[in-house]
Each structure stands twice: as structure tokens, then as C-alpha cells.
Amino acid sequence: MNTQDTIIALSTPQGSGAIGVIRLSGPDAISITNQVFAGKDLTQQISHTLHFGLIKDGDVIVDEVVAGLYVAPKSYTKENVVEISCHGSNYIIQQILNLLIKKGARAAKPGEFTLRAFLNGAFDLSQAEAVADLIASDSKASHDVAIQQMRGGFSNELKGLRDQLVHFASMIELELDFAEEDVEFANRDQLRTLILKINSVLQRLISSFEMGNVLKNGVPIVIAGKPNVGKSTLLNALLNEERAIVSEIAGTTRDTIEDELNINGIIFRFIDTAGIRDTADIIEAKGVERTLARMKQAKLIIYMVDALQTPDELQEQLTDLNKIDIPYLAVVNKADLFNDEQKNEFAQKEVLFLSAKENIGVEELKTALLAKVNLLSINTSETLVTNIRHLQALQNTENALANVLNNIDNPITSDFLAMDIKQALHYLGEITGVVTTDDLLENIFSKFCIGK
Ligand SMILES: Nc1nc2c(ncn2[C@@H]2O[C@H](COP(=O)(O)OP(=O)(O)OP(=O)(O)O)[C@@H](O)[C@H]2O)c(=O)[nH]1
Ligand SMILES: [Mg+2]
């Protein structure tokens, strides 16, 4: 990985805007910019200063710009950084990029600025990943989690534990050096206590993934029921747009249709499905199969019947639903067709009345969803694992530590103990990037946007 050259990219979105920001990072960032900057000698300026001037291609004025200087190591990447704020025209931006590339800069790859920041020790790997999450965050909850991780919540917690484990690993290594003398530098009871302590932290982090993942990607909620009860009408009412086709023909929806909605800062992912029934239609049958598959993956099912069905019919369907063991919320749609007496028949059951078509009861449904998913009480300032890579490393650490525990209890040589502790350290290190490979870094940073 070459970090000796100077990289350049547009850091603001493509397209025209009031201003565009072009960023350079690397040893020659300032001197390269200086070659095309008319106004003053940028190489003679101090860090953290702004300079108004012209970008010139020979005699041609390309734009009037402001150049911000950050002298290494006081910058995002810890290298020399220049941020050129120019007028946000595609043409100007292309001209400036081409010009600076001609003078020696290289077009940056996705995430390369953040990669350099990581390689230069500005933060650890999980914090770098949080930068991407922060940019992608589109709700208060996902923002809270990302900013917490970026500011090191997760890393600090792991670093402390890893340091203690490193201490034991070195003690046991020492024992190996004195193998003949049968000494014990690493107190086994203390080691056991430490591992149990680490395990409890690991378990908390591992079990936080489900919530973390939901906050990042949305709470999956499946709308299911028999054909024609009004599932697609409800999806449309929730989203406030004609997202799904609605018709009086049973079996209208064949495939799953999904979209997100932000309710009180939490992203819900609503999934409208094909109505459940036995059908000879091959395509519809495939749709029903999908419905059942999605129901099993849901965090919550909105199970819908309509006013044409009786409480007994509802009960029968709910009995079936109980078999898949996913929490549900029963709703009776088309309540506009009910008289009070009919409503009373349902009163024994715990149901929510709804008229999706008339948009009655939809707000109450949202409130019920929030309560049911019980997310209102979550504390996003607590460390949550949101990244599958971290989850896997945590699980691997846990397994390695389980081996350590076994080996303490079994009368076995210290060699194995040392090996298993090293394994655990390896996996813990993967999260924060103490242990990395080029492939891993490539994989992580290629998902970033260019210019970050
Ligand atoms: N009166 C009344 N009609 C409704 C209501 N909600 C939906 N409908 C009607 O019921 C019919 C079926 O609605 P859809 O939303 O397509 O039903 P669905 O459950 O998605 O049906 P499938 O996709 O076939 O499974 C349409 O004619 C809707 O206009 C409601 O609250 N009241
Ligand atoms: Mg439908």
C-alpha cells in the first residue's frame, strides 16, 4: 500500500452546488497546489490557515478559490492536507482535478483518506468503519450509534481488556522459557477471573448486535394476512405514497414490496407480502412461499384480517401464526365497514381497528409498533455492535477464550494455554486493526465513498 504519494479527490457530492471541496493529502499536497495557485506562496504559510487566490492553468484563470492548509501531522490523515473550496461547477471541478493530477497528484481510491488516517494512527479500524456508518446514517438512532463508535466507545472497551490479556500471555511465555524449573508466573486464578470478566463483556457486545443491526438497517416488519384484507393499502398509508398496487382482486401482490419509514428517529422497514392462501397459480404460490420466509425473519408481524372475517376466523389464523414464534400485532382492517355490534364481537381479542383506506388508526398503529418493538427505551449511548465483521471477531474471541478456560482446568502444558490466548488476542486485535491484512483493509475501505 503506497502512502508516499499525494492523493486527490472531490470530497463534496458530484453535481453542481454552491461550492465544491477538492481535497489533497500527502507529502506534496501543499507544493503541488502551490504550482497552480496564484496569490501567495502556500509553502510558506502556517497550518490551519485559509488563503484566497486564483487557480490558473498557465495563463487561463480556472476559478477563484479558498485554499485551507493543514500541515502534517495536524490533519485528518496526519499528512499535509489542502482543501480547495471552489465554485461548485462540474466543469471547474474537473479542470482543477485534472490540473493537479497533471502536476503530480493521484486520483484517490474510495476511502483512501480515511485509510491513511488509520495507517497513520489517527484512529483504529473500528473507528474508521464508524466514519462510513456516520456518513450513511439517516436516522437519529443510527447516527447515535455511529458517533459513539467513531469516538472510540467500542475500541476503548476492547483495548483495556486486550492489554490485560497481553500481560498474561507474556507471563505464560516466560514460564515456557523456564520450563525446567516448573515455575508459575501467571496466576491461574487471576487468569480465570480475567477471562470470565472478558467473557461477560463479549457476551454483552455480541448480544447487542441484534439491536445494533436493527438500528443501522431498520426494524423489519412484515405485513401479512389473507388476500385482499388491505395489506398493500396499509403499506401505502404508512409511507404516504402509492408504493404498492391495490385492487379488489384477491392475489394482487405477488412479490414482497418493502420500504423504509422513520418513526421517532427509528427506521422501520415495512414489507408488504402476497396474501396467504392455497393456490393453484404457480406464481402466486411462489409469492406465498416468500411471504412465509419473510415472516420468519421479521422482528414483528402485523397480522391483518378484515371486517369480513369473524373473531373465530382470526383466532384460527393466530393459532397458525403462533407456530412461527415471531411477535405479532393483530389488526382488523376495513373497520369503516363495521357497526358497533360487530366491533364488540372483537372486543375480547387484543386487536387494533384500522381503516387503511380512510387512513384511520394508522397513527395509533405506529405508536403501537414503537411500544411493541420496545425501542423507545434503548440507550444508544451504550456500546452497540453494528458491524458483522466485529460480531464474527467477537465470537471467535469467545471461542478461543473457552479453550483457554478448558486448558486451565485440565492438567495440560502451558504451550496450549499460550497458543489459545494468542488466538484470542488475534481476534480481538482484528476489530481495532492491531491485526490486519491488506485484503481486509481493501475490503473495508472500498465500501467508502471517494473523497472520504
Ligand atoms: N372499505 C375499505 N376497503 C379497504 C380498506 N383497505 C383496503 N380496502 C380495499 O380492499 C381491497 C384490497 O386491498 P389491497 O390493499 O390490495 O389488499 P391486499 O391485502 O394487499 O391484497 P393482496 O395483495 O391480494 O393479498 C381494495 O379494493 C382496497 O381498496 C379499508 O380500510 N376499508
Ligand atoms: Mg397486496
Automatic annotation (TrEMBL):
Residue ranges that the Swiss-Prot or TrEMBL entry lists as coiled coil: none
SUPFAM superfamilies the record matches: P-loop containing nucleoside triphosphate hydrolases, TrmE connector domain
Domain TrmE-type G span(s) in chain numbering: 218-374
One Gene Ontology CC term in the entry: cytosol
Family according to the record: Belongs to the TRAFAC class TrmE-Era-EngA-EngB-Septin-like GTPase superfamily. TrmE GTPase family.
Function: Exhibits a very high intrinsic GTPase hydrolysis rate. Involved in the addition of a carboxymethylaminomethyl (cmnm) group at the wobble position (U34) of certain tRNAs, forming tRNA-cmnm(5)s(2)U34.
The protein's name: tRNA modification GTPase MnmE
Origin species: Pedobacter changchengzhani
